[in-house]
């Protein structure tokens, strides 16, 4: 697999029924008479028509079929996750029995109310005669709106009404992040077999909230789990081949026989790309431990380190706990205690799990390994159904915050962010108060005393009716010209990025923060770049469209406005074949190390770790050049990275005060109320965590966890082979190939950190 995965955090600132089912008995119709019958018939017809137009309850996830003008359509919207953001995949199957034609697939909101806004997403596809095409329409979930309509338009813009269907997006998750699960399997798994996982996920949710944390905050009628968050799909059900369609899901479980023989190469690659960006992949039913699973290790390109790379589970950490049923949270948390006792999760009513399918807990129950920012778990046996204690043990073994979307990224695309102002470009968008006061003072003096005195001396005061507007016009022109010169015409950007470059698999994972002046033509990203908006206080999605027709993703200008603070978190996948090469020295005390920079960007500072005690550093190292690095102390390298991080730290612009209250955007307030604010911060997210690793140079030796069952942080040592592998850290002041949506942008106060592994 030769795929480059790039993760980017962007901040963009500009800068028919039978008369409605009514019937009348004979006495009634005689009583009303002919005129009355006509009135009632018309009224019933109007009621019937209105019934067709009124929104009807639609649950998230359903399959619909339709036929019109030789076109047969199937739309499948069964999918978990996306409660806080991501792309929701509408999986479409089109069959054309007629002449070749172009059709436009459209998904948009049922109405245009601001509180129910949904982006208009469209894509034009060509379908040959007697041909069938599978298409996924990726819908960005960026507001509280859920009720949408899917339509198909012909070449002339007319709708094929027989193909219209209703599909709802997932409900906003509120203040309760809960793990979502997608199972891809031909096994006949039902809700009963998945109930233990549901209960364990609900218990994790309650524990992280501090249940009674949720009870102590007050459980509101709308502040509850309203639907299950697991879906089982067949591997033959038109799975997406683009990783961003998995971007709203927390966990993906795949049956090994289906992975090995029924999924296509494109489908497997999409899941692996998603895993590398922070996803958790569970492969089960392999029949043997992961280290001896040759087919999987070859597919992952880790066959040379199969035994060393996989880590075994820790059965000593498994213990039985009482759980909080998902049904309890779904009904509003009635009966939950006000305080969660440490060391155990207890809550009435206690749920007795069916132990008939519980796991055989030992050192081979599961094994796992890092996969860039994510993790792959392998179960020799099927984990379903298991019991809630089994699943709670496994969930507590996941790397910190990876099991819940808003904590993984430190934000939600469907609610506001209290840290919005810290991402602004310093000096951009601010009002030049002192410059304007100076110009206005000069204007006042000239248009007043000086103008009067000059005309009075010449006995031509009547001319003031001409000089006053003339001077005012010149002053306005000067102020406008000053604003243009001060802001300029170029797009400015601010990026904070972390790039993980895996040279063995020729892949890269990058996280960054970006802030340009928004162009009027909108932004253009590759189809494998996920774009999640970050909303400021009292704001939210109002309107906008996404066009997928030209094999790319085009966001209309209505997503952002000039001279308006707008920010995006983006996650990008790209090919990256560049690499850094060096020959390890035979002498551990060799004074210099020659390196060759085969990357496409300059490195301002480069540090290579040959062993834990052998570091070489120096710079700059231009792209395509060879340089010699000097033997240095590890502490010197850490100091250099700390200084770079402090110089480009996220903080409020000078003179600006942070609102101490955390609000939800306007679009959330009417439905969910102020109490639905998410208690998340970017310090929890992957970008901050890996940037901190760069500052401390701690990558490699340990993995960090949070055991929510015990309420404590924990860590474990990575495998020796992984921890001892050579790696390098680098600092770049130029964009390391990350998409920004625009052709060119001038960086301002940017920082790019690079981690490379061989």
Descriptive report:
By secondary structure, this protein is of the alpha+beta class. The protein is 24% helix and 25% strand. The strands form seven sheets. A nine-stranded mixed sheet has the order 19-18-34-32-27-28-29-26-25, with helices on one face. A seven-stranded mixed sheet has the order 9-8-5-6-22-23-20, with no helix packed on it. Strands 11-10-12-13-16-15-14 form a seven-stranded mixed sheet. Helix 2 (191-209) packs across helix 9. The longest helix has 28 residues, at 26-53. The protein is globular, with a radius of gyration of 30 Å.
Write the layout of secondary structure elements.
Elements (H helix, E strand, L loop, with lengths): L4 E6 L15 H28 L9 E6 L2 E6 L10 E10 L4 E9 L10 E8 L3 E10 L6 E7 L11 E4 L12 E4 L6 H19 L3 H5 L12 E4 L17 E5 H6 L3 H12 L3 E5 L9 H6 L6 H4 L1 E2 L13 H5 L36 E5 L2 E6 L8 H9 L8 H5 L23 H25 L6 H24 L4 E2 L2 E7 L4 E7 L9 E3 L3 E6 L10 E3 L5 E3 L11 E7 L6 E3 L9 E6 L7 E7 L2 E5 L7 E7 L1 H14 L18 H7 L13 H11 L5 E6 L4 E6 L2 H4 L3 E6 L13 E2 L3 E7 L1
Parallel strand pairs: 6-22, 10-11, 10-12, 12-13, 13-16, 17-33, 18-34
Antiparallel strand pairs: 1-24, 2-3, 3-4, 4-7, 5-6, 5-8, 8-9, 14-15, 15-16, 18-19, 20-23, 21-24, 22-23, 25-26, 26-29, 27-28, 27-32, 28-29, 30-31, 32-34
Helix pairs in contact: 2-9, 11-12, 13-15
